[in-house]
UniProtKB/TrEMBL annotation, chain A:
Keyword Translocase listed: yes
Originating organism: Devosia soli
SMART domains for this protein: AAA
Family: Belongs to the ABC transporter superfamily.
Protein name: Sugar ABC transporter ATP-binding protein
Lineage, opening ranks: Bacteria, Pseudomonadati, Pseudomonadota, Alphaproteobacteria, Hyphomicrobiales
From TrEMBL, chain B:
Domain of life (superkingdom): Bacteria
Keyword terms: Cell membrane, Membrane, Transmembrane, Transmembrane helix
Keyword Transferase: no
Leader sequence residues: none
Membrane-spanning segments: 25-46, 52-75, 82-102, 108-133, 145-165, 171-189, 219-238, 250-267
Location(s), subcellular: Cell membrane
Molecular function in Gene Ontology: transmembrane transporter activity
Record membrane topology: Multi-pass membrane protein
Keyword Nucleotide-binding: no
InterPro entries: ABC_transp_permease (IPR001851)
UniProt xrefs under CDD domains: TM_PBP1_transp_AraH_like
GO annotations of cellular component type: plasma membrane
Protein name, as recorded: Sugar ABC transporter permease
Length: 500, 325
């Protein structure tokens, strides 16, 4: 590689208390090159990039920029060196305008007075380079998640940065937005910017990266040119063993059993006239990108968000859920899209999180003991392969994303739900745990559960679903039987409608 | 009796979560013991049974209100109206007692307390006003009502001195009542479905709703329990003083919140315990009592309690920074 190295990292170590997160990380970021950084949750990716961004301080190790040693003691120092981090969690100022957010931290001013003209032109230029059409004066709280992510990216790219670090930027973006982001990354690369791109998605690595670097257990387990590796090598480096690929497809055979739910003409602000059934043993995958109304549909079936018209039928009779507890009583279980804000009881124990919907049933009179919760957790701990203490006594916040997700799934198994409504079941879940979740879902379907997966990740559909529905802008645009489900068919159906 | 509360809360001591928490309680316990040792050395009277009873008796009103307050703060809510609520209940009781007699007046007091709790609960859960603002408003309203209806002078209450009776071990009934309520709330929080739902709502109200918890109903009930506590403290205060006035219960809301936070309940909700609150109450109570015995002016006790609160919370912040991975 002839490009000069912008940033060079040697022997970075970092511990939090007694927990060692990084055990000596070496990495070079060449100018004008995209390096993809992968690793399972807990591998130390976020800690590593926060050290580069000056947010954390390494316990040991050296950082060199342009060959000169440097030590970041603050975020400001890292920014001064030209490094910008686009973090995974959106950290904007919701009440401020788009223009103010883009120039946050570098407000153009004359003698300390804000230069609003310059602010608007800087913001407009940054948005133009992303091909984004947003109102400069709109408060960012009025934007949807993907648009807020665009504002964050615009802020990072507005200044003269020399190194951009993206931490899973596409999770909230639509297909079109992702394409424009990739085009921007291409332009930045040709301008000589060093780019570090963190992702869970292997297809993105092969689409935009020049080099791929994998972190496992706080060490670099793979550092190679993308052209020289294949998917299997990357996955093996991530999980430390070969991952069994999905040979075990569950095939749904019509049993004639009564449908667990029939949805007829369901309509709201986000989706129109939806018909969908789920029978025992079936895994119905509903695929749609951001803005398709797919997560809202799943929420409406559960009674978590209201719908305007249409019917939900259980045992052939229409039911109206005014509160999730009424859906739960009908045997429905719901895995929300956003684990942190809608799923987890973070300060509480793993066992308590699992038992939550079942407290009333498990109680002796009005009393629930920790012992009852522990035995409830014990019933599912092995089935779900949750990596935690066998009694589930630790706080759920200490588990990795995949294990948290398994516990949230276990909630509904303990509650005896027959119909599982799962929204983005593998979002923020690493490769190994992802396969385990798919396996659990197939097993559950075989045991007679009906499952509805609402997802913007086609892998969820291709791996688990026994039939698929594609939605675009709130409308169903395609029905695919199992033998026709493929990445190509899904993206084609989802993309075709959007540009129609 | 603290032993009793400890027994109900000692169950999780076998868990990692509790082991991570142990230093927090441990630090509070060590601080309490240090206070006790210090005051024992400085005052021979300090560790006598009558003084121990004094300490607990002085805590009883704050403690009963803190029991209801602990439920609310764990659920991520606040009740700042407890002090003026206590005064309003006591005044309504005194007025009703003059015309209706003692027993019907007790009924009136309970209704008034429950009514204040329902008003707070309605505003927070149905109308959707933030709890801090709601109860700041009702704090002002009921203090103002107490002053307007009761006037400047105090209202005398006769034939209602049960709270100062000492039927056994020389402990006044007000202190006994506090201990019973503390144990009751400790069990409610740590052992019942209602307690679990309170923690769940405080941890994540959204998630709690999606696992089928009737979050609004539960929070409403939490405010009503706080109202019942006001009814009880209004009656205890009326009985202890034999009168009530416009300044009864002034500043109680701060003493209550101080004790709960000192006891380790997070402002963010989802964590904390009644045992912690009792420790917080004792730390402030012992400090005030000891300083009085050492003839330190009571104005300095406020300075000490405020400093203690900030130190305790700072210590906890620093500790969490070390634990967090």
């Amino acid at each position: 590689m002839s490009a000069p190295t912008f940033l060079s990292v040697r022997g970075i170590r970092k511990s939090f208390g007694s927990v060692k997160v990084l055990h000596g990380v070496d990495l070079d970021l060449p100018a004008g090159s995209v390096t993809a950084l992968l690793g399972e949750n807990g591998a130390g990716k976020s800690t590593f990039v926060r050290i580069l961004a000056g947010d954390h301080h390494a316990d040991e190790g050296n950082i060199e920029i342009d060959g000169a040693p440097i030590s970041f003691r603050s975020v400001a120092q890292s920014r001064e060196a030209g490094i910008r981090l686009i973090a995974q969690e959106i950290a904007d100022a919701p009440t401020l305008s788009v223009a103010e957010n883009i120039t946050l931290g570098a407000v153009p001013n004359r003698l300390g007075f804000v230069d609003y003209g310059a602010m608007r032109s800087i913001a407009q230029r940054a948005l133009d380079s992303l091909g984004a059409d947003l109102q400069l004066d709109a408060p960012v709280s009025s934007l949807r998640l993907g648009e807020r992510q665009i504002v964050e990216i615009a802020r990072a790219t507005a200044g003269a940065s020399r190194c951009l670090i993206f931490d899973e930027p596409t999770a909230a973006l639509s297909d079109a937005e992702t394409k424009r982001l990739f085009a921007l990354i291409e332009r930045m690369r040709s301008r000589g910017v060093a780019i570090l791109y963190i992702t869970h998605r292997l297809d993105e690595v092969f689409a935009i990266a020049d080099r791929v670097c994998v972190l496992r257990d706080g060490r670099v387990s793979l550092d190679a040119k993308v052209a020289e590796v294949d998917q299997t090598a990357v996955v093996t480096a991530m999980v430390g063993r070969a991952v069994a690929s999905h040979q075990d497809h569950h095939v749904y055979a019509e049993t004639g059993a009564a449908r667990l739910v029939e949805v007829r003409g369901l309509t709201s602000d986000s989706f129109f006239n939806i018909d969908v059934d789920v029978a025992p043993g079936e895994i119905v995958g509903i695929y749609g990108k951001v803005g398709s109304g797919v997560p809202e549909l799943a929420g409406a079936i559960f009674g978590a968000v209201p719908h305007a018209s249409g019917d939900i039928l259980v045992d052939g009779k229409p039911v109206i859920f005014r509160h999730p507890s009424e859906a739960i009583a009908q045997g429905f279980g719901f895995l929300p899209a956003d684990r942190a804000s809608e799923g987890l009881l973070r300060p509480r124990s793993v066992a308590e999180n699992l038992a939550a919907p079942s407290w009333r049933r498990l109680a002796r009179g009005a009393f629930v003991s920790r012992r009852i919760e522990t035995s409830a957790f014990g019933r599912w701990h092995k089935t779900l392969k949750v990596r935690s203490r066998p009694d589930g006594a630790e706080r759920i916040a200490t588990l990795s994303g995949g294990n948290q997700q398994k516990v949230l799934l276990g909630r509904w198994l303990e509650a005896g739900s027959k119909l599982l409504l799962l929204v983005e079941p593998t979002r923020g879940v690493d490769v190994g745990a992802r396969q385990e979740i798919y396996q659990v879902l197939r097993d559950l379907a075989r045991q007679g559960h009906g499952i509805l997966i609402a997802s913007s990740d086609y892998e969820d559909i291709t791996e688990a679903a026994t039939r698929a529905i594609v939605m675009v802008r709130g409308q169903m645009v395609a029905h695919l039987p199992q033998n026709e489900i493929s990445t190509a068919r899904l993206t084609e159906a989802a993309g075709g409608g959007a540009h129609a | 009796m603290p032993e009793n509360v400890q027994a109900t809360s000692a169950v999780p001591a076998t868990t990692i979560r509790a082991r991570m928490k142990a230093p927090e309680w441990g630090a509070l316990l060590i601080f309490l013991l240090a206070e006790i040792v210090f005051f024992t050395i400085n005052s021979p009277y300090f560790l006598s049974w009558p003084n121990i009873v004094n300490i607990i008796t002085a805590l009883s009103i704050t403690g009963i209100l803190a029991a209801g307050g602990t439920i609310l703060l764990i659920a991520g809510q606040f009740d700042l109206s407890v002090g003026s609520g206590t005064a309003f209940v006591a005044l309504m009781f005194a007025i009703a007692a003059q015309s209706l007699g003692i027993m019907p007046a007790v009924g009136v007091a309970v209704l008034v307390g429950v009514g204040i709790g329902m008003l707070n609960g309605f505003l927070v859960t149905v109308v959707g006003v933030n709890a801090l603002i709601t109860t700041l408003g009702t704090l002002a309203i009921f203090r103002g009502l107490t002053l307007s209806i009761g006037g400047a002078s105090s209202v005398r209450i006769t034939g209602f001195d049960w709270a100062i009776a000492r039927p056994f071990l020389d402990i006044p009934l007000s202190a006994v009542l506090f201990l019973v309520i503390a144990v009751g709330i400790a069990v409610l929080l740590s052992r019942t479905v209602f307690g679990r739902t309170i923690y769940a709502i405080g941890a994540n109200e959204n998630a709690a709703r999606l696992v089928g918890i009737r979050t609004k109903k539960t929070l409403f009930l939490g405010f009503v329990i706080s109202g019942v506590c006001m009814a009880i403290t209004g009656l205890v205060s009326a009985s202890q003083l034999g009168s009530t006035s416009g300044t009864t219960g002034t500043g109680l809301e701060l003493a209550v919140v101080t004790a709960i936070i000192l006891g380790g309940t997070s402002l963010k909700g989802g964590t904390g315990s009644m045992f912690g609150t009792v420790l917080g109450l004792l730390i402030v109570g012992v400090l005030n009592n000891g300083m009085t015995l050492m003839n330190i002016n009571s104005t300095w006790q406020q300075v000490a309690a405020g400093t203690l609160l900030i130190l305790a919370v700072s210590f906890d912040q620093i500790r969490q920074r070390f634990i967090r991975a």
